[in-house]
Amino acid sequence: MRPRPAGSGNHPPAARPPAADRPVPVLWAGRDRLWAAWIAETLQRHGVPAAPYPWDPPDETPLDRCLRDLAPDRGPVLLVLSPGFFRHSPRDGAEWNAALSDLLARHPGRLRAVSVAPTDHTGALPRAADLLDPVPLTELDVPEATRRLLALFPPETQGAPDRPAPDPAPERAVPLTGARYPGESPAVWGGVPRRNTRFTGRDTLLDTAYHALHRRTGAVTLYGMSGVGKTQLAAEYAHRFGAEYDVVWWVSAGGRVTCRQGLAELAPALGLSTGVEYGERLRAARDALRRGDPYSRWLLILDGADEPDQIGDLVPAGPGHVLITARNSGWGERNSILLEVPVYDRTESVAFVRRRAPRLSPEEAGRLAEALEDLPLLLDQTAGWLRDSDLSVEEYIDLLRGGVDQNVVRISSDFPLAFQTGWSILLNNLRETVPEAVDLLRLCTFFAPGAIPVHLVRDLPPADLPPPIAALVADPARWDRVIDRLRQYAVVRPAGPEPYGAADDTLSLHRMVHQVVHAGMSGREHTELIDVARRTLTAANPGGPARTAHWPRYAEITPHLQWADVLRSTDPAMHILVLDCLRYLYLSGEYGEGIDLGRRTLAAWRELLGEAHPRIWDLSHHYANLLRAVGDYAGTEAIDRAAVDHLRETRGGQDLEHLRASGGLAADLRGLGRYEEARQISRWILASYRELLGAEDSRTLNAQNNLAVSLRLLGRYEESLELNRRTLETRREVLGPGHPSSLYSEINYAVDLRLLGRYQEAEALQSRSFRGHRRELGPDHPQTLRAGHHLALCRYLAGPAGARALFGQMLERCERVLGDHDPLTQMVATSCAWLERETGDPAHALVRHTEVEERYAAMLGPAHPFTVGVRGNRGLTLLALGERRSGRTEIEHAYGGMRAAVGDDHPWTLGCALNASAARLLTDDREGAADLSRTTAATALRTLGPRHPLTLTCQVGHAAAIRATGRHEAAKRAEREALDGLSATLGPLHPTTVRARSRVRTHWDFEPQII
User: Fold this and answer.
1) Is beta strand 247-252 parallel, antiparallel or unpaired with respect to 321-326?
2) Is residue 680 predicted with pLDDT exceeding 90?
3) Closest CA to 748 of 803, 779, 702, 694
4) Are 1002 and 956 in contact (CB under 8 A)?
5) Of 34-48, 918-932, 959-973, where does mean pLDDT reach its minimum?
């Protein structure tokens, strides 16, 4: 049987060359692909043509014939030996001895061998390997391994006629592809489960995944039913091919929180300089993977990622590879190649069973595999048990045929029948031999199945534990014996990363086992153990969810709230735990999981505690914050209004909790575009806080800030400026100039200065503020990003080109730090689209405007002022592209929509009207342009004053419109008056003044504001 050429990421499949100069076949099997690739390349690098070939002889072909077919022609053959080379076929040692002895006698010197078995497994090579005298290559440095390898192929000067001389011609040089010495470990290796020494088969699936990833497809998902070995397959991939990567990182991805935590932990492992903030580490790690800096050859494994909708946005792009395990084939819709993981084929089942239970014959292993439907998990558990049992295979199969005692264990009907019956037998055995193991397993089912923090259980006082588990915890040796037995039967496995991941730290329990054990408990056992789980989680609550140092602990305990059914508890400590977890999810940006937890908690507590219980209003506050963070202002309004009505009725209008809820309601109304309602509530809240707490209390200053926001959104910039001036002065005096609240007030005050046309003052203040933000909060803090964006806006007004670099920097940071859909990211993206249009890239600007408009429409609705305003910006970009008719249509729609949203006198409506007048001129509607520009200029003069830049720009637009109708003298007077005003307000050389003097078409861009 001739070997087949093998491909790898570094070596494409090669055709067999003529016998006279064919490469040395380097034969490998099982896990040793990378060894074969490195050996072949090393030989080529030193002038010995070589090519790797997989050793995969058919079982039905005699071994001696397979070996004879290896070397029918002149030249050596190199065998890469490991235990897997001999296990790859069902031959015994005697057959190997006979076949190798015959071949070596017929062809002396033709077969050469190296051993790549780890030193602790060298003895696993059969005696037949001694006939080949293999040269060991493992656990060496690269020069020594190379020296030993080349010694097998001495040069012609040493009398070896079969080594070709190196060819000095460069055009015939063998291309080098960078295969690495497999004995070298990746620079960063974390979270990967220990290598399963019993791993069997799956070579085709592993090779398929390997080639799919190396085609740069983005990601590969191993999907299939529970129990088929997806996690084991991913772990074997990491170990088998890990030497090709600089970084191999394993993340438990059963939930968004744990996935984010695992990714965040990669940042310090990569040596990235970040602060202690959890979110900052996550963003830095994802950015490093995306850029391939400091490592471009990385492998990220997301294990148990069954909810692509929850964690799909966390999957990094970049030059590396992502391997996912899941039961959900929905990853196919997210740029991932799907590889289904089936049950074992019968050959794999037999080989696996015999490795687990060597006393079984191939025939017995085959019958067992058939009875267990070739399901890997059940084969692992059953064979591990049968290894130490006196029960015969036939007796076990008879038990299976007898069915499950439903009084012993009740199992989900979606599990295979063989699993149901097989697990019942195993559970009975555990109950008879190590009953404490069953007690521990039952307790574990009140935690999420993926990663169970048993170390938290061991931290509880013995009095809080049931006697069997308390005795187990008190006796470390006994604890270890129980864990070892559970691992032996493949019931649990360590969930922690190598080299720690000790059995007393965190355990992983398979979903099928988890459900089976949980379903088999009595009511008394359920009540007793769920209380233990709840006490465990309560005791683990560090308190202070605003402290980022506590976030890893919250990330550890939050996934278990559902399994311990904490929402049904009346214990006040459990209520505090839930509220703290909600606060953590909000502060860490885990809005989706927080909203889900908040929704379920609200429903449960309303039923358990009643609609009027005080905890309901605490919960409503946290839940509304989460909904507001994702732009669900309609949802938050309903929640906050209910809280406001109840608290006003039961506690009175001056109650502090009622005022807090009212502030949330005002924020909801601002988000919904109902600015006047928000202003009225904000004014009343401010007056109440001043009366109750005084002018300098932080709550009073927050209320004053919020009233200013409402006024600004109404276009009442002078009033907003005055309030922000007072807030800034008080915060500087009370809190200090470097306090985050003082810095935030600087942004608000500078925004008002700019909106009032006081551009130089705004830029001077914002430049100082941006430096202060970077110094006090760091460059990636959301408030720093807001400060940087406003500074870019100030610079834009002095000339678009001068703001290019800062706009680009702020957008990149917002996308990396906050995500594409964050409100601040949308604000910056809107500004960047202006910049692209005004600096010669309207096509890209159109794409960006469209993306932002779609996101605002989805978040806020099509009639919201932000959606309408960005649509008007899109119309301006269409005009820049020469699409006059479609551009005018968009602009006219925006003008009508803005009038409906905020009224005729609002500055946003005036800006849309200015654009509509210009669009009418471009489409030859001169009278329509003149009429609209006249009313717009008059309204701007009345509402904004004669020196406001928007008033003066509207006057310039009106001059252009009446000039087009032939009224040149009137146009000249209007233009002269406007130009004089612009020169006096902005200066004669300001870009706005220069454009107006040059009669460049005037326009106004909508700018989304802080809500």
Assistant:
1) unpaired
2) yes
3) 702
4) yes
5) 34-48
